Amino acid sequence: MYLTKEEEQILNGEAGETLRQAIEILVALGDIYGADRLIPIKSAQIAGVSYKTMGDAGLEWISDLQGKVKVPSILNPAGMDLEAWERLRISPDFAEKQKSIIQAYKKLGIRCECTCTPYALEDFDVGYGDHLAWSESSAVSYANSVIGARTNREGGPSALSAALLGKTANYGFHLDENRVPEVSIDVECSLQKSDYGALGYVAGKLVGSKVPIFRLKSIPEADELKALGAAMAASGAVALYHVNGVTPEACKLDFAETAEKITIERNQIDEVYESRRKAGEEPELITIGCPHCSAAELKMAAELLEGKTVSKEFWIFTSRELAKRYPEYIRIIEKSGAKVVCDTCMVVSPATNSYSCVMVNSGKAFAYVPGMCGAKAVYGDMETCVEEAVGRTQKKAGGFH
Predict the structure, then answer these.
(1) Domain containing 367 — which CATH number?
(2) What is the 3-state secondary structure (H, E, C) of 117-161?
(3) Which end of the chain is more exposed for a tag (fewer CB within 10 A), N or C?
(4) Is residue 399 assigned to a domain?
């Protein structure tokens, strides 16, 4: 891999040990994947934030790093709400370690809004064709597919290294030839809302890490594309997908027919909704917001919850910026007894580990909760989640004004 004179000096340790380690990680990845050089990036999004997944070793490594990031950089969800961690019964010891992790990242100049939807923040700009180094799987999928930016699915250390250098290795989805569809997926039915998360859960298992192009009978909105990509990244390893006539590269580029073709039928999607019957037990915890809820999703949750009172634990996850931007939605949601939680999610927080069965409206959470939280997961749309949380006798009460 070609390195400039300045990059060679960094690799030789002339810019300090932190940058030497950073470029060493990127050069090693570049050599493995056949990169020709390092390229500038516009921003970085860094996973490896929750103390639940990092542990003491990760905290120690981050704490030893020096310097400042070269590009706008932001964190993935932490293991708790950083301002109200007691609400979900997080232990003081965990909270102290989590705060230390955040401070270590902050020292490096990284923004400590902890969200898996950085593209939803008003001042974290990303556009078509921008090269990025993002590591949250659902954010990578959204950036590549819906925005048309370019990023590989970075690990936490490689995304942090790219942030410190302002560069990443030029391979994978940074290159045109790797963004071409490899498999066509025809969906034989119309879809709405949470159907897209269920579709993504099914499709991810079928295509693995390939690049699919969908032919749909429905036109998905941004939140539905978010759900589709997040689920495929979790049940498979899809980091880029196209939707015929919808996503930017599918509209701008003339793709040839793929050799591999898959058809997905309604009954395959319905099987995901059947998870509740198969689980054989009732959910103790209801969660939405994986990825973090958008403004439209917060509004819908408020509409469904106004005038009702929850009878089960109900957690709604969003970014702190959106929670502050829409206080009326938050007030209505929390008046019901549901909790709006920022900075974290049900997957990376240890709070979920004390429940045996969790209802989700997310294909991503449906894939991850069993392995990462040790709980059974059951799937439903947002209306079903609210109905489950408040009880059937209240489901027709209330209204949004």
Answers:
(1) 3.30.499.10
(2) CHHHCCCCCCCCCCEEEECCHHHHHHHHHHHCCECCCCCHHHHHH
(3) C
(4) no
